[in-house]
């Protein structure tokens, strides 16, 4: 099993990073080969929307971090995405990265309908927000992040096997035993058929 972890929190010791660290360890203990990317350290130019990639099947912008991450996405069996809640959505840098990878994630059939290019692959999402539970879900805070990522994953062919949403990070920055167990369990789901 080859897994790509995309950490879009710029905080190395923040909540998302802590959850991803538990997941990385669990995946490695199960024998996975893990590629770990800090999205905030990549150099990625925003998509210019030219749509040339639809026919050229490559991005017309000069090579940067986006093409390198896309290569990794193509090589792996599963994705683990860590995304803090920023304005009820995913961090801008992660959105920019997914925009730039569109041609390698989703194709188009002859009628212009989406063609998921990663069918059979799985994904896990982790998010965190200061809005406490259950309002992080009811008010679309971490839930907004999960919904946005679901859209990208669905049309790319990834099956979302688990989303973990941690609320109330301002008052509760450490991971509970229950949260650690949930992170480990979510990773193990990637091995299930
Ligand atoms: C730019 C920005 C926007 C944010 N927007 C929200 C928000 O809409 N709702 C919320 O509950 N928390 C929001 N937060 C708080 C973060 O979600 C919270 O600090 C979370 O723990 C960040 O994840 P991290 O600990 O992994 O860095 C925002 C933080 C930043 C920096």
Description:
The protein has helices at 15-29, 53-56, 65-75, 92-100, 102-105, 135-138, 142-156, 177-188; strands spanning 2-7, 33-38, 78-84, 106-108, 114-116, 122-128, 159-166. With 193 residues, the chain is of the alpha/beta class. The longest helix is centred in the N-terminal third of the chain and has 15 residues, at 15-29. Helix 1 (15-29) crosses helix 8 (177-188). It has one domain (2-191): Rossmann fold, CATH 3.40.50.360. The model has no long low-confidence stretch (mean pLDDT 97). The two termini are 13 Å apart. The chain is globular and about 50 Å long. Helices cover 38% and strands 21% of the residues. The chain has eight helices and seven strands, in the order E-H-E-H-H-E-H-H-E-E-E-H-H-E-H. Bound molecules: flavin mononucleotide. Flavin mononucleotide (FMN) binds at residues 9, 11, 14-17, 84-88, 128-131, 141, 169.
Structure at a glance:
This protein is 38% helix and 21% strand. By secondary structure, the protein is α/β, with parallel strands linked by helices. The strands form two sheets. It has a five-stranded parallel sheet, sandwiched between helices. A two-stranded antiparallel sheet has the order 4-5.
């Amino acid at each position: 099993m080859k897994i790509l972890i995309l950490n879009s929190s710029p905080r190395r010791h923040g909540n998302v990073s802590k959850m991803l660290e538990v997941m990385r360890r669990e995946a490695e203990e199960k024998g996975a080969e893990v590629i770990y990317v800090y999205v905030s350290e990549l150099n990625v130019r925003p998509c210019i929307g030219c749509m040339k990639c639809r026919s050229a099947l490559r991005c017309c912008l000069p090579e940067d971090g986006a093409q390198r991450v896309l290569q990794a996405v193509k090589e792996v069996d599963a994705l683990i995405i860590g995304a803090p809640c920023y304005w009820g959505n995913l961090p801008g840098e992660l959105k920019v990265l997914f925009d730039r990878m569109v041609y390698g994630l989703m194709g188009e059939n002859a009628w212009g309908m989406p063609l998921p290019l990663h069918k059979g692959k799985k994904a896990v999402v982790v998010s965190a927000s200061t809005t406490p539970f259950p309002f992080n879900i009811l008010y679309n805070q971490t839930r907004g992040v999960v919904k946005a990522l679901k859209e990208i994953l669905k049309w790319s062919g990834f099956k979302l096997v688990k989303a973990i949403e941690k609320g109330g990070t301002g008052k509760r920055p450490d991971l509970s035993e229950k949260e650690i167990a949930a992170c480990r369990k979510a990773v193990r789901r990637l091995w299930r058929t």
